């Protein structure tokens, strides 16, 4: 911890990548944890275009259940720590801060983070399959499933599904942040899903120190400059 505090105090350009683990203590189940299954489906079987084309009602039921679960929880101390890092740096006009998340739950925004690169989209945004119109959508139920756009097209969650490309601009901005930072935190991700999983390595290769916060070892742990076997909230509390 002392080493991490020193690294943080000396960092000019800071970037953070978060995954499902940062929301775990808020009560959002992780993907690869014991609660990752829903009606015996793996996320990979539901969060994909094939599933939506075959059974859009099933896919929407899954998302509506997840939306209800997320609505019922609150951001935790780790989300708040990151929003404070951003605000402190902005106020002090000291250095850069970039928050990159794989999470679609919107909890970073609710904790007050402003500039968030949402690599995998956001569950509170919908997109029309026909006209591509995006809309903020807090609904927890719809008169019919799948919901319809005003153009008549089917509406889907604005989430990057398995087999789909990430938004190239969001990915480029994340890459630039990883390459340009001097300190990179990776918090609560299994570091298995690419291209997000490349970002800590990009940062390392560009010469940054990389700190991993995860209660379990990951495929990245051995490479990390510092790997803390801690839960995200425990880390936030230790940071004070
Ligand atoms: P995973 O479920 O793969 O990994 C969650 C990680 O969080 C694991 O390494 C856990 O050890 C760790 N973890 C658990 N509790 C924690 C805690 N309290 N504090 C810190 N870490 C904790 O989730 P992701 O890595 O986010 O994609 O998965 C990446 C992507 O896989 C997701 O964004 C999702 C999924 O496919 C999409 O939805 C597109």
Notable traits:
alpha/beta, Rossmann fold, 2 domains, 6-stranded parallel beta sheet, 3-stranded antiparallel beta sheet, 10 helices, globular
Strand and helix layout:
Layout: H1 2-10, E1 13-18, H2 21-24, H3 43-46, H4 49-54, H5 56-71, H6 77-91, E2 96-101, H7 107-110, E3 116-118, E4 121-128, E5 134-136, E6 155-159, H8 168-180, E7 183-187, H9 199-205, E8 209-213, E9 226-228, H10 232-239
Parallel strand pairs: 1-2, 1-7, 2-3, 7-8, 8-9
Antiparallel strand pairs: 4-5, 4-6
The structure holds 2'-O-acetyl adenosine-5-diphosphoribose.
Please, what is the average pLDDT?
Answer: 94
Record field, number of beta strands:
9
Ligand species: 2'-O-acetyl adenosine-5-diphosphoribose
Mind telling me the C-alpha Rg?
A: 18 Å
CATH superfamily of the largest domain: TPP-binding domain
Beta-strand portion reads 15-25%
- The number of domains is 2
Order of helices and strands: HEHHHHHEHEEEEHEHEEH
Physical arrangement of strands within the biggest beta sheet: 3-2-1-7-8-9
Task: Look at the helices and sheets and give the structural class.
Answer: alpha/beta
Q: Distance N terminus to C terminus? A: 11 Å
Text of the CATH class of the largest domain = Alpha Beta
Shape field = globular
The largest sheet is: 6 strands, parallel
Helix count? 10
Name given to the CATH architecture of the largest domain: 3-Layer(aba) Sandwich
Helix content: 25-40%
Spans where pLDDT lies below 50 across 5 or more residues: none
What is the name of the CATH topology of the largest domain?
Rossmann fold
